[in-house]
Every structure is written in structure tokens, then in C-alpha cells.
Amino acid sequence: MHTNSVAQLIEGLRERQFSSVEVTQGFLDRIDALDGLYNSFISVDASAALHAAAAADKRLATGEAPPLTGIPIAHKDIFCTDGMRTSCGSRMLDNFVPPYDATVIQRFRAAGAVMLGKTNMDEFAMGSSNESSFYGPVRNPWDTGLVPGGSSGGSAAAVAAMLAPAATGTDTGGSIRQPAAFCGITGLKPTYGRVSRLGMVAFASSLDQAGPMAHSAQDCALLLNAMAGHDPLDSTSSCTDTEDYCNALDNNLQGLRIGLPDEYFGDGLDSATGECINGALRELEALGATLVQVSLPHSALTVPAYYIIAPAEASTNLSRYDGVRYGYRCPDPVDLHDLYTRTREQGFGDEVKRRILVGTYALSAGYYDAYYKKAQQVRRLIKQDFMNCFEQVDIIAGPTTPGPAFALGAKSDDPIAMYLEDVYTLAVNLAGLPGMSVPAGLVGDKPVGLQLIGRHFDESRLLNVAHRFQQATDWHLRRPESAAGPLTGGAA
Amino acid sequence: MSIEQNEIAKIAELARIRIAGEQIGQVTERIAEILQMVEQLQAVNTDNIEPMANPLDATQKLRPDIVTEENRRDAFQAIAPAVENGLYLVPKVIE
């Protein structure tokens, strides 16, 4: 049963092939048996999950249950969950039990989904390897010596290892797409503002966006249907109409124009990864699409612009952690200044502190124009590049990452090498566009992700292209050997 | 762009983060590397380019100025490190 897609689980639950309690118990058993290997969950509340599953079974029996009723879903530990610890991967929030639900969580509850647990992540979503978590690194199910990517690495690993059929993630610079690529799953970062940020612990508010992570584009569409929509409690959430994201999945790709940016196929791209991407592009061509060479001339500036804007916003957002109202407080503070400075010294990890310091510097008197304002101007140039491309093409495609997953520890002491991991994904956040990663091949045993980038609010088209690609290929059906653990076949 | 240890100490004070004396050298080195990397931006001509704060150039939506929240003080204080009589406790500020 754990090998089923969300779409198959929905069908099975409605046809009474199995109950939500059975499905949920099956995934809980798998987490129990296998997550020692991956460390993909921070918190699991089995009794709450089974309680929700029993309630879902009652609703299903009435015949009037919303679409995701009874489907177990894992949530990144960045979404506030009423009564359940929300750590954001940090010592600062290790003891934080929110008194309310994030809008995303509320929407999943309303859609009938069962919360399986909270997944591991880089501290405050700052990282590309999941090594900055206070709860230890997550291991990649394809090879436990490799990183799963980050920051939504726990969600990606949990889905890849079939410990959950689907999960939520958040993406500020690639944090859904890069781990999806490294773990061989499908992930979607929606348009900025498509999904509410209320109750999602803030990193960089003009970049953060939540999205679905699952095995297929169809499953992502099912989750996005529950997640998307205006939230009056998030003033940056969009009022643009949502749609049924499953409606366009089967459209044919005849006449679709796909732009290939020169800058995404240059020297920085690992050659075996490039071959997988080229193979995927030929497949899309065979499905009727036309490949068009395009250019994003300001690509080289995305890493520097991002590493001003994101830390600047982070330094502002993270000033709320003061040891007074919630979260960690240092022991025996002698005065208020000591309370603030030692709480933040002990509560934050190295990378988080580094970004707060860079952001504070960029926003400080005398440097604002040279750094922050300059980066905001370059941000407009980067967005303009995409808008120019979208006059010629319907979507843009390329690699999600420069290469497949790297070894644990390989880049953890070199922040800049880590930042360059996101060289193809950062621009999408700066421009506020929707982006996806779709499994597109293997280099040895390591998955490779194809990135698809769309116009603002064109999620349906991305999902359509990804779905048609997945109808013609089986990369998204491959599963890591390590997940074929003691429970294979027999479980649930 | 190089940055000196005393500047890092000043920034850390502004950010209210204590940095232990023996770590300040390494922290300075790492941040200098990042500042050097972002220096590339200075070479770009951005004359007459409007800074972009929101990727959709959206402006803040306003709502009527009426109370919409209920008072949940007890729930919020229940998760605080130290409270007494409905007040958040911190070390003595005024002697």
C-alpha cells in the first residue's frame, strides 16, 4: 500500500479497499522501522494521526468527504501546528508548541488530510543539504552517505523512502526543488503569494512560498488544490483566482514552446546531469513541444543578489527571537542585554547567525544603498530577463541543480560552495515565478531533476507538462533500494 | 570588500548576538568571503532601475480598521519562558 500514489490512495479509500486507519498505521509502521536510517522526521504523534484517520473513515462512510479525506501527509516542521511542537530545525524553537495552526495546516485539515508528523529541515530553512538542523542531518534514501538536499530535506527523504505518500515543503531559494531533485521526487514551488504564509515561520518574506512534494505531478496538483488560495490573514497572499489544478494535466503538448536558457547549460553543469536533462528535453520534443534557445543574461548575478536580499529579510524576521515571549531562553541572564545576546548565541546555529550578521550589515547605516538597494535593482533586472523570455516561450526548462546529491560533510564548511548549489533555482524566487522539479534520470544511483519554470500563476501548465512527461517516462516511479526495508510488500 | 573584526563585533552588537572572543576571527573570515562574493553587484549599471521589493510589484492590501482578533493572552503566555500575573518576566531593567 505504501507504494501507492496519493491519487491511488484516494481511489482505494473511496472504494473501501482499505481504511484511512490502515493506511495511516502502515506509514507509521514504516516510519518506526526505517526512519532511524534517514532521520527525516522531527516529531511524530501516532495517536493524534490515528485519531484523525478514524475521524476520516467516519467521514468517508457518509459519502460526503472532501478530496484528501484520510490521506496521510507529512508537514515540514516550519508550519505552526496547534498543540504540536514546531521547531523549524532550531534549538531556538525546540520547546515551541504553537497555540494555532498555519493556514496551510488548517486547509489540509479542512480537506480531510491526516497529519503524519513534522519533517526535519535545515535550521530556519537556511541550507541546501539539511546539515544545519539542530536535530542532525537527514540522509538521502538513495545513498545514506549523501545529503538529501535542503532545506525541505526531511520532506523529500520521507516521500522518497515511502514513509509518507506526500509532504509539504517551503522554498525560498530552491528548498522544495533541490531536495526533490536529489531524492528523485516531484516538487512544486508555486507563484509568490499563491499559498498563504500565515503560520509558516518566516525566513525571507518576499521570497518564501509553500508547495507540495510527492511522487508525481498529479499528486502535487491534488495537494495544491488544498493549499492554494487567498488568505485574508496574509496581506501578501494573492487574490488571483485559483483553479482545479488537475483539470489541465492531460492537455497535449503540441505546439508548446519550451525555452532553454544558455546560462543553465554552461560550464557549471555536471556533464552526466546535463545528458539526463537533454534526454528529458528530447522526450518533451517527442511529445510535441518545440525547444527554443533563450537567454537570461543576468543569471550570474542571482547568487549575489539573493545573498543580500534573503539575509537582509532574515535578519529582520529573526529579530523576534528574543528569549522573552516564546522559544529558548539562556540560563541565568544577568540583565536584559545578556538575556538577548546569549539567548541568540546559544539558540541559533552557525549558518543562521552568519546570515543574520550579513543581513544586519547590508541594512546598516551607510551600506543600505550599496547593498540592499542595489540588490533590489538587480532583482528587477533578473525578473525582466524572465519576462522577456516569456514573450517567446510558454515555459522554461533546464536542470534543477548543477549535479546530483553530494556527500554528507562535503560542503558543510564552505558556505559559498553551498550557496552555489542553488544557482539555477534562486532566480525563480527573486522573480516570484512558479517552478517545479521532476525526476528526469539517474547518474549512477543518484536522481537528477528537470526544472520547469512558468509564467506567474501558470502552475497548471507546469503540472500539465510534468504529467505528460511522467506518462511517457518512469523516472518518477523508481524507488531507492534502502526503502525496500523489512516491511516491503507486507506492510499495510 | 574586506571587513575588520571590530566591524563584525559592532554588527553582532546591533544584531544582539554574542560572539565568543575565540570565534570572532573565523566569523569575520567567513563573512568577508560572502561580502566579496556579493561585490559583483557593484559592477552592474542600475541607473534608473526601480528597486523591486515584491516580485509581483504588489502593494500592501488594506482592510477596515476594526478589531478582528480575539484576546488569547493566556494561550500566548502559556508558552513564554517566564510570566507572572499576565506579564512577561525579564531581568531587572531599572535599578
Structure description:
Chain A is built from 15 helices and eleven strands. Chain A is α/β, with parallel strands linked by helices and 492 residues long. Chain A has a domain at 6-250 and 438-449 and 458-483: Amidase signature (AS) domain (Amidase signature (AS) enzymes), CATH 3.90.1300. Chain A has an eight-stranded mixed beta sheet. In chain A, strands 1-3-2 form a three-stranded mixed beta sheet, with helices on both faces. In chain A, a hairpin with a 2-residue loop joins strand 10 and strand 11 (446-454). The longest helix of chain A is centred in the C-terminal third of the chain and has 21 residues, at 369-389. The radius of gyration of chain A is 21 Å and the shape is globular. The model of chain A is unreliable at 488-492 (pLDDT under 50). Chain B has 95 residues and is mostly helical. Chain B has helices at 5-14, 24-38, 73-77; strands at residues 83-84, 87-88. A two-stranded antiparallel ribbon of chain B has the order 1-2. The model of chain B has no long low-confidence stretch (mean pLDDT 93).
Give a quick rundown of the structure.
The complex is a heterodimer of chains A (492) and B (95). Chain A has 492 residues and is α/β, with parallel strands linked by helices.
Distance between the termini of chain B: 43 Å
CATH architecture group name of one domain in chain A: Alpha-Beta Complex
Helix content of chain A: 25-40%
Low-confidence stretches of chain B: none
CATH topology of one domain in chain A, by name, is: Amidase signature (AS) enzymes
Approximate shape of chain B: flat
Q: Which residues of chain A form runs of ≥5 with pLDDT under 50?
A: 488-492
User: Largest beta sheet of chain A, briefly?
Assistant: 8 strands, mixed
Beta-strand segment tally of chain B: 2
Structural class of chain B: mainly alpha
Q: What proportion of the residues of chain B form beta strands (DSSP E)?
A: under 5%
Query: End-to-end span of chain A in angstroms?
Result: 6 Å
Radius of gyration of chain B: 22 Å
Count of individual beta strands of chain A: 11
